[in-house]
Amino acid sequence: LALALLLALSINSSSHAIVVEPACPAADCAYLPLVYNPAPVRIVNAHPHSSRAGTFRLIGEVVATSDRPVYEVLIEVRVYDLFGQLLGTGTGPTLLAATLPCQVYPFEIGTNIATDDSYGHFEAAISHWSLESDRVYRPVTAVITGIEAIPLYGTTVYAEARNDQPEPLANVYGVIWSVHQSYPAIRRSLAPCLAPGETVAFSEFLRDLGGTSVATIQVVAQGELTPCSP
């Protein structure tokens, strides 16, 4: 029997598989089932930027696609020139350790690919993930409490993180970001241990961010479910 199966995976923000089957009489063809294991996390937003050094930088957002936490999420970006030729690739993780259900999490990828006149477009996709972790993470309720715009400079964002879990959370981290910010996003250490009901305030200055882009600012926080003393 003549048998051929070509599986092409297109790298983009919503990865999909394309099966190209050979033309042949039906009686002479046999088909294998397509086995496709989609990532339990997907990219929902991605914006390219040029770093101060003139290189390609991508900042974006991911969400889990089920009710299970996802760990070790890596995103790969491929950068092409105006003629569709690959200029280079880059890989980066989410800024927080776990991608928990029902929340948006940021990622950032820096490269050494020049954003000059040859730059054409980019493609991004989830390249790695895990559903297993030695550590247990829980969401920390994080809200923006104030925004102070500084014309021509940027925007200062004030936020609070509150532990609404019934147990203390250790190693609490948070991020305030916008996919339109021109400088790298920063993961902030908020507390070594946060008691149930305890709140911690933090802030971030998003340089060069203003105007309608202020509406894209988000905040998220999480901690580890492990014994600690507030």
**Helix percentage range:** under 10%
Strand order of the largest sheet: 13-12-15-10-11-14
- Radius of gyration from the CA trace? 21 Å
Label the structural class: mainly beta
Count the helices. How many?
Answer: 0
Uncertain spans: 1-29
Query: How are helices and strands ordered from N to C?
Result: EEEEEEEEEEEEEEE
Tell the overall outline: globular
Question: How many strand segments?
Answer: 15
What is the strand content? over 45%
Distance between the termini: 69 Å
Overall mean pLDDT stands at 87
Largest sheet: 6 strands, antiparallel
Question: Can you describe this structure?
Answer:
- Strands 13-12-15-10-11-14 form a six-stranded antiparallel sheet, with no helix packed on it.
- The chain has 230 residues and is mainly beta.
- Helix content is 0%, strand content 57%.
- The N and C termini lie far apart (69 Å).
- It contains no helices and 15 strands.
- The chain is globular, with a radius of gyration of 21 Å.
Question: What would you say about this model in short?
Answer:
With 230 residues, the chain is mainly β. It has no helices and 15 strands. The strands form 4 sheets. A 6-stranded antiparallel sheet has the order 13-12-15-10-11-14, with no helix packed on it.
Helix and strand layout, with pairings?
Layout: E1 6-10, E2 16-20, E3 41-50, E4 55-64, E5 70-81, E6 86-93, E7 98-99, E8 105-114, E9 119-130, E10 137-150, E11 154-162, E12 169-177, E13 187-194, E14 199-207, E15 218-224
Antiparallel strand pairs: 1-2, 3-4, 4-8, 5-6, 5-7, 5-9, 10-11, 10-15, 11-14, 12-13, 12-15
